[in-house]
From TrEMBL:
PANTHER family: MALONIC SEMIALDEHYDE REDUCTASE RUTE-RELATED (PTHR43543:SF1). This is Malonic semialdehyde reductase. The keyword Zinc does not apply. One of its GO terms (molecular function) is 3-hydroxypropionate dehydrogenase (NADP+) activity. Keywords: Oxidoreductase. InterPro entries: Nitroreductase, Nitroreductase-like, Nitroreductase_HadB/RutE. Residues 29-185 form the Nitroreductase domain. Its EC number is 1.1.1.298.
Length: 208
């Protein structure tokens, strides 16, 4: 990992150690190249069971993950990837598809136990439910990516692919593909090129 100086604004007392902050944010990269080591899908399951506790709207859980573990599933994802993304994605030891579940409210008894009116509200509002499904799944995906980094993995997300094709070939009913993930243990040369800049808090955060 490259030697990134800790920004002064991040040097104040913090619950996470300096090493943890570097691993999760400052030195983690969206790798193209990975170490020659397999990734056990149970690691992803373990991360899910941690990341699911991140806050969401009404505790909803619309994110779904399809791990393309078999050769057939992996080939289906690669075939759906945009031509520019395919050779990069091929290098990932493990490929996953992040999706949203249009009927996430069917599981309301888990995240809204004792309140069956929640189901009725989402069932009666397909448009609102769709917005929650997509926005909530992306929020949860952020937690999952940070969780995977916490397991020592590198993750590269891809948005360029044929979503309809994967919905037909890999997705269970009511699941809709959103993002492809190339996952693996970092190689010494991450293959992602020089790190690009990020806008500072002075530009992005407004205190009123």
């Amino acid at each position: 990992m490259e030697n990134t100086n800790l920004p002064e604004s991040a040097a104040a007392p913090f619950l996470l150690s300096d090493a943890a902050r570097r691993a999760l944010f400052l030195e983690a990269r969206s790798n193209v190249a990975f170490a020659d080591a397999a990734v056990d899908p149970t690691v992803v399951r373990r991360v899910w069971d941690l990341a699911k506790w991140g806050p969401t709207s009404n505790n909803t859980q619309p994110l779904r993950l399809v791990i393309a573990s078999s050769g057939e599933a992996r080939e289906a994802v690669l075939a759906a990837a945009a031509p520019g993304n395919r050779p990069k994605l091929e290098q990932a030891p493990l490929i996953a598809v992040a999706a949203h579940d249009d009927r996430f409210h069917d599981h309301h008894d888990v995240w809204a136990g004792g309140n069956p009116a929640v189901f009725d509200r989402f069932e009666a509002d397909p448009a609102g439910r769709s917005w929650i499904a997509r926005s909530g799944s992306m929020l949860q995906l952020g937690y999952v990516i940070v969780g995977l980094r916490g397991e020592g993995l590198a993750v590269r997300p891809y948005g360029g692919f044929d979503r309809a094709a994967l919905d037909r070939t890999l997705m269970p009913e009511h699941w809709r593909a959103e993002v492809l993930l190339g996952i693996g243990y970092p190689a010494e040369d991450h293959g992602a090129g020089d790190r690009k800049g990020r806008i500072p808090a002075d530009t992005a955060v407004r205190v009123l």
